[in-house]
Amino acid sequence: MKIKSNDSFTVKIVTLACFTIALFFMSFLVGRYSISPKTVIDIILSQFFDIQKYWEETLATVVLQVRLPRIVLAILVGGSLSVSGASYQTLFKNPMVSPDILGVSAGAGFGAALAMINNAKWWSVQMLAFVFGMVAVISAYLIAYAFGRQAITVLILAGIVVSSLFQSLLSILKTWADVENALPAITFWLMGSLGKGTNKDVLIMLPALSFSLLLIFIYRNQINALAAGEDEARTMGVNVSLVKLIVVSSSTLMTVTSVSICGIVGWVGMVVPHIARMLTGANFSKLSAASFFIGGMFLLVIDNIIRGVKGVELPLGVLTALVGTPVFVFLLSKVKKGWS
Amino acid sequence: MLSVKGLSYYYHPDRIVLKDISLELAGHDILCLLGPNGTGKTTLLRCLLSLNKIKCGSIEIDGRDLTKLSAGKRAEIMAYVPQATTMAFPYEAREVVLMGRVAHLTAGGRTTRKDQKLVDEAMEQLGILQMSRYLFNEMSGGEKQMVLVARALAQQARILIMDEPTANLDYCNQIKMLKVIKTLSENGYSILMTSHFPDHAFLACNRTILMRDGVIMAQGLPDEIVTTENLSKLYSTQVCVTEARLDSRDMVTKVCIPVMY
Question: Which residue, among A9, A213, A235, would best test binding to B if mutated, counting the most B CBs under 10 Å from its CB?
């Protein structure tokens, strides 16, 4: 019954952060061009210090324009999806919830497909994905607000309804899509990829992510109290409607930005919080921090595998489940605390 | 002092759930709310906690309108002890108690040493400090109930609203809980509890309300209103209120027994 000590939370988080940083640097070595660690470090440092260039210009481009954004995005997307998942699970008091429960992925998928069948440019694909992802969540929220007497379960229900609407619309678009170009593009997008990530995407992602994480951080104790249930949280002094709005808007902002940059990446947002809980317990302030690092590292490892396997570009959203599930089952068997 | 006047509540206007409820709860009071299932006891608690919005009447604390207070301010005056259920996630007992401090934390701030100390004191007082690290979901019903009381104490509100604090507990844990309730009232807490055991009115409470079909049938001292006639009428079942003698201790208590014939 007694469980292992949890007091070492700071140690755990610092360790996770160090691992993430180490993994960040090691990831530069993965890819089609083999570049020595020293060259990678010198190329990065040359951005800040005056270092004599001894490498070809191509290598600098590979490191700074191709690998850097992709590595950073993997961490940010993995981290955002995991923190969104953790906050939704705590808010909805439901371990089966993932960040797309309110329809954000379905909406974004529809938006992206809409752009693709019109042969739109990549930035308009991202734009429409963002817009329709937001539209989906806002509709779900308004439906729940209008008919749900503020109950949280109604919000999930509204999300599922809106989700299936956008999935139907997406299916219609797919039947209309040109089989040669648009359809494969849509299908590939729906399985997620970081391959098109640029430094500009990082610059768009960073403010959205920081803003959302800051909001979640400020309200972490209130979100935590909601794990006891909506009514109990209210009697403990939590402004439930406000916290609900904060969680939904910040999670949506993080998820929709991630999804519009790299397509739909499943599995991470739902399962990483469970892995983090094995490490820190259920307390949301600890859980959210651990989820960010574990999610970031996980997606980075998966993307490294994709970059490392030569010849084929495996889809990100597929590989997450393919690699993640055995790892998750292994962890479950190792941790005595169990999956509760 | 909590004072409720003319409170009414309904989900649909043609089906009144609570009608013209008036009651008062002073410091050191333990008020026991008795009544059959579906009579509106829980709804009344929910109204007092502003979980349900009252349709008419007033709820005041020392002259202040409770319905106009923010959730945070109300939480500093009144705490709720729900019936023990399970949490969706593996929280430790201590983490559950610490949730009671949420109203006192500054925006974005972290729990301070003072919060930790209050949590320790609450758990110590209820004799569950050694269970701090247990998983809430793995605790027994009686232990869970104590954790929830500790959470309410950590909240530092003077009024405790308890929904069937003795439900699903064995005799030992029932008595333990009643002792805790008595001690708390001696320390100045006001307690409003619901129960399905009329005996508990004699064991721990100084005032009783009998409630049926959303109206108050009788209220007053347990000795005066918890009687054979009243209880039989309240539950529509023959109930006998009699005396039990504990010779070894030279003690007499009133007990209530349903009779089947």
Answer: A235
B90–A337 CB contact, under 8 Å:
yes
| Any B CB within 8 A of A225 CB | yes
Helix orientation angle between A268-280 and A68-92, rounded to the nearest 10 degrees: 70
The encoded tokens of residue B92 equal 């430790």
Partner-chain residue, chosen from A5, A217, A237, that has the shortest CB–CB distance to B75: A237
Q: How many CB atoms lie within 10 A of CB A129?
A: 30
The model's pTM is: 0.92
The CA-atom distances, in angstroms, between A144 and each of A85, A154, A158 are: 20, 6, 6
Minimal C-alpha gap between A96 and chain B (Å): 10
Which residues from A are below 8 Å from B118, CB to CB?
Answer: none
Written as tens digits, the pLDDT of chain A (340 aa) is 334 444 689 999 999 999 999 999 999 999 888 888 889 889 988 888 888 888 888 899 999 999 999 999 999 999 999 999 999 999 999 988 999 999 999 999 999 999 999 999 999 999 999 999 999 999 999 999 998 777 788 999 999 999 999 999 999 999 999 999 899 999 999 999 998 899 999 999 999 999 999 999 999 999 999 999 999 999 999 999 999 999 999 999 999 999 999 999 989 999 999 999 999 999 999 999 999 999 999 999 999 999 998 878 889 999 999 998 898 888 888 776 555 5
The two three-digit tokens of residue A54, written as one number: 């001894």
Grouping H, G, I as helix, E, B as strand and the rest as coil, residue A77 is helix
Task: For residue B74, give the chain A residue with the closest CA.
Answer: A237
Is B102 touching A (CB cutoff 8 A)? yes
Q: Token pair 């919080």 is at which residue?
A: A273
| ipTM, 2 dp | 0.93
Is beta strand B15-25 parallel, antiparallel or unpaired with respect to B2-12? antiparallel
**Chain A stretch 82-111, residues whose beta carbon is closer than 8 A to a beta carbon of chain B:** 89-90, 93-95
Q: Note whether B186 and B30 are within 8 A (CB).
A: no
